[in-house]
Amino acid sequence: MPEKKKDDDSLLLRLRQLTKGLWYISEADYPLEPVSFPTPLSNKRLIEFAQPQSPTGTRVERQDLTEFLRYYTSEDNAEALGDPALTRRFQALESFLKRELEHVYVYRIGDEPRIVILALGTTKDGQRLVGFRTVSIETGDRYIVLRTNSGSWISTLGVGADGGWSISAEITTIPRSDGTSVVTDPSVCGPQSPPVDDVNFWTFEVQSEGESELVLSLF
After folding, report:
1. Given a cut of 80, is residue 182 above it in pLDDT?
2. How far apart are CA 140 and CA 153, in angstroms?
3. What is the pTM (predicted TM-score) of this model?
4. Mean pLDDT rounded to a whole number for the chain
5. Which CATH number fits the domain that encloses residue 86?
6. Same domain? 126 vs 196
7. CA torsion, ordered 66, 69, 75, 77, to nearest 10 deg
8. Of 32, 85, 138, 177, which has the fewest beta carbons less than 10 angstroms from its beta carbon?
9. Is residue 166 over pLDDT 90?
10. Strands (E), the chain
């Protein structure tokens, strides 16, 4: 095996060890997943890496790695994380990325409610971008995000009738380990009439082969 390939494999192996069991906390928690892409780096390629079907004009914001991880690496938040060992693990992850890679930054790709996050740096030889991927759910009051597993899934959502809300649904697939995922468009029915106890009830159904997300937009 060429020396360069061995070095790349060793880097990813260590990154998998460091990120195993680590989650990014937002309105829904997502794991940190190691990634590796060929250089060069551009906003267009970041969008392709993060959300292949997104339009070219998708928003990309760059952030300092230390700033992004400060909640997780601060000793003051160790108790809030539920396990002081997690703080040390995030500190070790940050140190590893800064030591082994160059020009390490965090990129936020997309808009609410679902923002893909890529923390990437360039390998010493300049040939690859290595780091981790995760997702931040930032809904405010206008979105509800539900994760589904494989198969047919039917559920009901109640929304206060006095708010005059309507609902639209958009499905996002989460690729399986082999990179494939199949899901149909969600079917949304409702609200039933009249409201029950001042609550409108909406029914939605998803049929998927693989894990997916259903984003309900209130408007």
Report:
1. no
2. 25
3. 0.66
4. 74
5. 3.40.1460.10
6. no
7. 140
8. 177
9. no
10. 23-24, 30-31, 33-38, 60-64, 102-109, 114-122, 128-137, 143-148, 151-160, 167-173, 182-183, 187-189, 199-209, 212-218
